[in-house]
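Internal ticket - ligand job 178, zinc ion:
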Amino acid sequence: MTHPELTRADLRCLAEALAEARRGLAEGGIPIGSVLAVGGRILGRGHNRRVQEGNPILHGEMAALQDAGRQPARAYRRATLYTTLSPCDMCTGAILLYRIPRVVIAERRTFRGPEALLRRRGVQVVVADLPEAVALLREFVAAHPGLWCEDIGETAAARRKGRRARATVATRRRPVRS
Ligand SMILES: [Zn+2]
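stdout (structure tokens):
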């Protein structure tokens, strides 16, 4: 896999985020993982624990931030957040709150959060588009559609509509990368 904006450290951290997603799946949870790193050094890592802990705010990104613990502002401002899925509104808020300047996303085909908002606020967003990340989550969503809707705050009916809308967009537009 090659991507002009991804360094070797990025690929390593993405692989760790994917390992977290698989760990979540093995625990019976939603397979989304994340890593917070500075210059390739991992400060925190985690995976979605909605099911395992009955906790609606423990998305993968939030779990990685929690695992990193209290960090000084200067650490966040040099950090990259790696995530296996495009960040939702809640996780986008956390990225903006701590002024994390760079986000590397493994995939955004299954779900696309407000990446435009991140970019508008000066965050560099890199989409790796890893097929293994797409496959991992899609298999889970197909097997547990209700759980997936719950995690992204959607009713099943809205999700079915949204999926059709997104599928239409995907066939008409090339994926935008930056
Ligand atoms: Zn989230």
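Auto-summary: Residues 34 and 51 are 17 Å apart (CA to CA). Residues 165-178 have pLDDT under 50 and may be disordered.
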